[in-house]
Amino acid sequence: MNKANKAARRKKKNKRLRGLIILDIVLALLVLLGFLAGSYIKGGYADSESAATEAADEIIRGIEPAVKTASAIEATIEEEERRMQKDAWSLLLVNPWNKIPESFEVETAATEKGYEVDERVREPLEAMLADCREAGYSPVIISAFRTRETQQYLYDRTANKNDTAYPGTSEHECGLAIDIIDASSSGWADPLIKEQEDLPAQKWLMENCHEYGFILRYPHDKEDITGIIYEPWHYRYVGKEHAAKIMESGKCLEEYLGRIDKDKERIGSN
Ligand SMILES: [Zn+2]
Q: Which of 152, 191, 190, 194 is CA-nearest to residue 170?
């Protein structure tokens, strides 16, 4: 083998080696690139994934109080509805626009002087009268439960039809209303006048009736909403809790129940 041949073979061998080395480097670079790309993509996904999770968490954290408030409000409304449902009998709205339902029935119980009231109202009524007397005053019941016939009779013989509720629209037919005067007005030609408000028993009743579950049903400043003149003698049972709320708010029953119908036609109007 001559020198030239040897040199040529070495050259060839070197060339092959160089080729292999270059191939190795290229492969290594490719692997590295692949690895980098992979980890980049993986990292990128992971990053965007965790960013999305974080953003979602942030949103949830942000709306959480609102969700809590909303469900709290919902629960309160439901609770309120349940309570109103339970108290439906004592919150029955009867006025010139709302007739007593056909299905209405009431169990009455006799109280003072033979007057009758819804049997559930007798005890609080008697407690109120007893405490009023205890305080030194003289309340006297002059009307309570009326049958439809009695209401019809009263209505028929009233000259001014605005003074007596149209049959079927009087709270007295429900056994939930009681007219109470101060004994000192018993001798008046008509004790059912505005001046009743100045008498001591009446003052005491107006101030304390809510503690027994009663409200003064027809306040002087709500005549257009109740459809009834100011009556500082007509007490209506609604239950202690509602009576306190109504009293405190200064609302009348229609306002409290959110059922103002004053712009509609009155029942029985010609
Ligand atoms: Zn009355």
A: 152
